[in-house]
From TrEMBL, chains A, B:
The keyword Ribosomal protein does not apply. Keywords: Cytoplasm, Nucleus, Protein transport, Transport. SUPFAM superfamilies: NTF2-like (SSF54427). It comes from Macrolepiota fuliginosa MF-IS2. This is Nuclear transport factor 2.
Length: 124, 124
């Protein structure tokens, strides 16, 4: 599964770099059918997801990926399930927050879009 | 998505109760094509997954689910992506471990099997 892991790494590098520097730029990764569940709140469509992500109440944010796992998610299509755990540093806080995030990536042309996105902070 | 959340709750209640009382009983939830990534190690097939789960080196284990999220994972099939975060109490340790786990459930007859399973402990 070397390819899948490489794609997952490339995707998450791009996703978190974009999230941390230009959140509005994430819109291109979602489609009308895309779903985000953010801390339990369900949101659908690229426009609504982008509105949610850009309105999150922090000025500065940095994702640090701790673990990254990927599996093929459909025998008929080259879609990929990606699971991330990591740390979120918000507004230079000295206490990073743990998070878990799941994506399902669907192939489209030579790239992928995000059909499923589930984000949770993990409180100890 | 009430139905999906109810199915996810029913599945995870059954899964963790079986894990905590009779790990070998989990084999029925997996198929030949099923994948488990356990702490980064990829394992495939119901038999290999069951062998891994039953050989984990703890005598007594208890899962406590903290968050549970579910989304439909395929427009063409009633499959479900389930993401769990929670606490794992191993051998009555006073310090529970945080974990994240992702499942993709695929409909089969009137029930579901697990195609994807990704488990990670979350270290702070």
């Amino acid at each position: 599964m070397a390819d899948i892991n490489a794609i997952a790494k490339q995707f998450t590098d791009f996703y978190y770099q974009t999230f941390d520097t230009n959140r509005a730029g994430l819109q291109n990764l979602y489609r009308e059918s895309s779903m985000l569940t953010w801390e339990g709140a369900p949101i659908q469509s690229a426009a609504a997801i982008t509105e949610k992500l850009t309105s999150l109440p922090f000025e500065k944010v940095q994702h640090k990926v701790t673990t990254l796992d990927a599996q093929p998610s459909n025998p008929a299509v080259a879609s990929i399930l990606v699971i991330v755990t990591g740390l979120l540093v918000v507004d230079d806080s000295p206490s990073p927050l743990q998070f878990s995030q799941a994506f399902q990536l669907i192939p489209e042309g030579s790239s992928y879009y995000v059909l499923n996105d589930i984000f949770r902070l993990n409180y100890g």
